[in-house]
Amino acid sequence: MAAVRKTRISDLTMRVHPIPPGMRVADVADLFLADACRDLLCLPVVQDGRPLGVISRYAIMRIFLRQYGREIFGQRPIERFMNSAPLMVDIDADVEAASAWVRQHMVLPVTEDFIIVEQGHYRGMGMVTSLLELMEHHVALRGRALARANASLKASQAHLVQSEKMASLGQMVAGVAHEINTPLGYVRSNVELARDFVSQTSSALVASRNLIHCLLDERASDEEISGHLMTAAEETESVSQSGILEEVSPLFDDTLHGLEQISDLVVNLRNFSRLDRARVDHVNLNESLDSALTIGRNLIKHKAEVICDYGDLPSVECAASQINQVFLNILTNAAQAIADYGRITVRTRALADTDQVEVRIRDNGCGMPEAVRARIFDPFFTTKPVGQGTGLGLSISYQIIEQHRGSIDVVSTPGEGTEFVLCLPCRQTASAAQNPVLAEAAGSEA
Ligand SMILES: Nc1ncnc2c1ncn2[C@@H]1O[C@H](COP(=O)(O)OP(=O)(O)OP(=O)(O)O)[C@@H](O)[C@H]1O
Ligand SMILES: [Mg+2]
Question: Is 269 a residue whose pLDDT tops 60?
Answer without folding.
Answer: yes
